[in-house]
Design a protein that fits this description.
CATH architecture of one domain: Orthogonal Bundle
Helix content: 55-70%
Number of helices: 9
Largest sheet: none
CATH superfamily of one domain: Tetracycline Repressor, domain 2
Number of strands: 0
Strand content: under 5%
Radius of gyration: 18 Å
Structural class: mainly alpha
Length: about 220
């Protein structure tokens, strides 16, 4: 879990260190391959502290994934509701709805070292699904998906729900792809280094929003 860049300097608690270490190990190795020993070594603590704060690895998985993903979705929903309130009773502009989806994903996933641990975790969870992590994903994302598809229906009332849901998935996939490529680990792969050359976050958001809006309008 990447520390927010605006966070004031303070000493994290043992529980916070464990959550941050777990997120990083899960992002690097996946949930199943990660061991509690690796997590506690990274957190500078011991196995007893995991049992004390979380009870088991499964409970730690739920807590770490929730702590990593929930702030992004909460920010999305806040921005979406602000957008709808701002334009009510008229439908919100499509570009504003898309930005509410994209902006938190860009701004809240990048750590101080440039890594995007929440993105890598999501990619791991998608490639290696298991019932426990699927339940976390459903709890954290189902309501978000529903609220955004409702807002998109307001923007494009002539499109069917199936069309909207599919293009909504296209939008999320495009953001995941480019943000995954911009992680420092991905930059070690051939042909990916140029993707973010000279591109700051605002430019990236602008380009992603333009791309997704064009897709919806196609």
């Amino acid at each position: 879990m990447n520390p927010p860049r605006h966070e004031t300097a303070k000493t994290p608690s043992t529980k916070e260190r464990i959550l941050a270490a777990a997120a990083r190990v899960f992002a690097d190795k996946g949930v199943d391959a990660a061991t509690l020993r690796e997590i506690t070594d990274a957190a500078g603590t011991n196995l007893a502290s995991v049992n004390y704060h979380f009870g088991s690895k499964d409970e730690l998985v739920v807590a770490a994934l929730t702590a990593c993903l929930r702030p992004i979705n909460q920010a999305r929903l806040r921005q979406l509701e602000a957008c709808r309130d701002r334009h009510a009773p008229a439908p919100p502009p499509l570009c504003d709805v898309v930005e509410a989806l994209i902006r938190p994903m860009v701004t809240l996933t990048r750590g101080l070292d440039g890594s995007r641990i929440p993105i890598r975790i999501l990619l791991q969870l998608r490639s290696l699904p298991r019932p426990e992590t699927n339940a976390v994903m459903a709890a954290e994302f189902d309501q978000v998906h529903e609220r955004f598809i409702e807002a998109l229906q307001e923007c494009r009332p002539t499109m069917t729900r199936q069309q909207l849901a599919l293009r909504y998935d296209f939008a999320r996939g495009a953001a995941m792809q480019i943000l995954g490529d911009m992680d420092p680990l991905a930059r070690e792969l051939p042909n990916l280094q140029a993707h973010d050359a000279g591109l700051d976050e605002e430019q990236l958001i602008e380009q992603l929003v333009s791309f997704v809006v064009a897709g919806f309008n196609a």
